[in-house]
Amino acid sequence: MLPDTARARAAKQQKDLARVRAERDDLRTQLQLMARVVQVLEIENHQLEETRSQLEAQLASHTAVADFSRRRR
After folding, report:
1. Which class for 46: exposed (0-12), middle (13-18), buried (19 or more C-beta within 10 A)?
2. How far are the Cα atoms of 57, 58, 64 from residue 71, in angstroms, in the given order?
3. Cα(41)–Cα(48) distance, rounded to whole angstroms?
4. Contact (CB, 8 A) for 50 and 57
5. How far apart, in whole angstroms, are the C-alpha atoms of residue 29 and residue 21?
6. Is 3 helix (H, G, I), strand (E, B) or coil?
7. I want to staple 6 with a disulfide (CB 3.0 to 4.6 A). Which of 2, 17, 39, 66 is the partner?
8. Cα–Cα distances in angstroms (integers) from residue 30 to residues 17, 18, 27, 36, in the given order
9. How far apart are CA 13 and CA 4, in angstroms?
10. 3-class secondary-structure state, position 50
11. Per-residue pLDDT reduced to its tens digit, 17-72
């Protein structure tokens, strides 16, 4: 049988262990959420880059048409 101090220490260690495990689980959940946010932001960034590229191409083609129509006059 354990003395009261050893029993109290063991109980405290069990309590601390449970707290640390809960913190670990919470941090893991937060990390997974942050990873998902980063993934979504990377996808959105890629889509914005594609849209910008398309808009620049459209602008270039409209500018070329405008330049061509000015030259004919």
Report:
1. exposed
2. 21, 20, 11
3. 10
4. no
5. 12
6. coil
7. 2
8. 20, 18, 5, 10
9. 14
10. helix
11. 999 999 999 999 999 999 999 999 999 999 999 999 999 999 998 887 766 666 65
Q: How far apart are CA 55 and CA 61, in angstroms?
A: 10
Sign of the torsion formed by the C-alpha atoms of 43, 46, 52 and 58 = negative
CA distance 51 to 17: 51
Q: Which residues contact 10 (CB under 8 A, 6 or more apart)?
A: 2
Query: Which pTM value belongs to this model?
Result: 0.65
Terminal alpha carbon distance of the chain: 106
